[in-house]
Amino acid sequence: MVETVSLYRAPTTPVDADDLADWLRDRIDAEVRVRGRLLGAVGDDDLPEELAAGRVTDPYERATGNTMLGIVRYEERALDDPERAGGVVYDGQAVQRALNARLPDEQGLDHLHVPLLDRVIGTWGDHDGRWHKRVAVLGQPALVSVPGLYEAPAKPETYYEAKSKHALMTGDAPPREVLEAEIEGDFLVADDPRTTEALKGYVLAAVDCLETGTAFCDDERCRLYDAHRQPGVVRAQLREPPFCARHAERYG
After folding, report:
1. Could you tell me the fold of the domain covering 4-153+185-251?
2. What is the model's pTM?
């Protein structure tokens, strides 16, 4: 049984951790704490190299890591100044292992740690031999990637059709901002004002996974559903009803 949840801020993102915590308190029988940025709090001499070792360097290559001195120095600077971070995908399970060894409190399953991250995380797909960006990697700690919310789920087909059309006509890829402004559809963009609301289900899924041993829900209308496409994220997280019947009984 989860007795305590520690939720860690991601200050360079638009997420309101206090709002997330209040929402969670209304749905679970556990103490919910809000703490500062976990990566900044647990950074030590070894963490930059471990993060460098977890970098995904090729989307179709299982092996990760580039621990050359310049890359490690970059990770050191990004830990001190998170505004510097970006453009890198990390093995979510490698990051999870690194943080698990540095959790500030007891690491038992009665105290769940949920860091909101300003990094993009992914998991390897044995079924298709490639890396996939993820919004969340559940476990202890449960990682929730804010940029992953925008980047991991695929956008509507019209987005990719417009991108291809623009490339054929101009020979260049259109700026992301142009596409996001022109394409109608249900998808979230960087710094979206709906970010906090959209992440609530992922944080609750982290608690549910630890308590039930089940990762996510199969019902695409439930907030505990792990949608692989942006319209699915909008439907699960931002539309009624908030939960399937089973999870409504537990959390509604």
Report:
1. Collagenase (Catalytic Domain) (3.40.390)
2. 0.91
